[in-house]
Amino acid sequence: MRPLLSAGDTEIYRVEEYRSAMLPVEEMFIGTEALRLQIAALGPDDYEASSDRLVMASTSYVVRSRGFVAVVDTGVGNGKPRIRDMWNGLTTSWLEEVSQVVDPAEVDVVINTHLHCDHVGWNTTTDAAGAWVPTFPNARYLFNELDRSFITGPDARVMFERNGDFWADSIEPVFVAGQADVVELPHRAAPGIVLEHAPGDTPGHMVVRVLDPSSGSTVAIISGDALHHVLQVATPGLTSSFCSMKEVAEATRRALLEECAATGVPLLPGHVASRELLYVGADGEGGFEVSDGAH
Ligand SMILES: [Zn+2]
């Protein structure tokens, strides 16, 4: 597999678990009536007009920086019991694709940008006895206290009712195995890999800043669900109905878009299907637009 991006001693690989016209527009976003013209103008990799559904990908990233390897976001996972039909007992070749980049036994850290069930699934696989155990046997799994307390607190019960108990099959086994580290943010996992607090979608949502360790410059920002769809570049106020802190999420999104528009650094989002590198430009009226990357 070829890297999506490389700079100095750092390489980023993109692994797509699946893509699907999965969610009706109105289920994904709040307040889409005023955006119907923009939605109708989207291409087929962003929107399926026949079903009025948004096309979403599930993406993970493998970052190799001076020999240190991080896996960022682990999708829905295989064989997980889930409420949503499409995710229930999903079978994909995600692990084979990751294994083309790195032997799972050689992954140093696993980072879930946030603790939603479509970002933690491949944290675990089943052992011979059918128990959920860490997929990456020698990795440290990095969490922060805000999301750890969120996922073990009362607000998470609603998510488990909607999705299935992904704490029990995808996160708790990592703690039981002694492979979880609860870190303070920002956290430098390696010279080129920094976890930063980007709250909103969950209280402890993080983005991962990937740096060229030689120059210290930012190569890309793996942005998780700070942004779910390209629609939110031109309309940062558009908020996912799954966000737990909607106003905070918008402020986080605007700050990321501002940085990317000013610097030309690409975002690597969790669900955008139409672009592997999401470049952002200024639209000339104080807002943002998707750009071709020329800066
Ligand atoms: Zn997500």
TrEMBL record:
Heme as UniProt keyword: no
Superkingdom to which the source organism belongs: Bacteria
Spans traversing the lipid bilayer: none
UniProt KW keywords: Hydrolase, Metal-binding, Zinc
InterPro entries associated with the record: MBL_superfamily_lactonases, Metallo-B-lactamas, RibonucZ/Hydroxyglut_hydro
Residue span(s) of domain Metallo-beta-lactamase: 57-271
MF GO annotations: hydrolase activity; metal ion binding
Family per record: Belongs to the metallo-beta-lactamase superfamily.
Protein name: MBL fold metallo-hydrolase
Gene source species: Pseudoclavibacter terrae
